[in-house]
Amino acid sequence: MQPGSVCLKEGTGEKVLMEGEQTHKINTENSLWNLDTVWCCLSVRVVRCGGVQCRRERRRLM
E strand or H helix at 33, and its extent? Predict the structure, then answer.
């Protein structure tokens, strides 16, 4: 991964859900990311090792 990039991982495994550049400041204490306007809402938390882990909740938003 490049410096400044973001990687979302599922659970304790190593399955990468998304990689990309961080373009907005994120409140990592209690964040909701909408990656798809209809289906996907992620609750995200940052871990100390520098990676980002997430708990995925698949919901229909509209």
Answer: strand 31-36
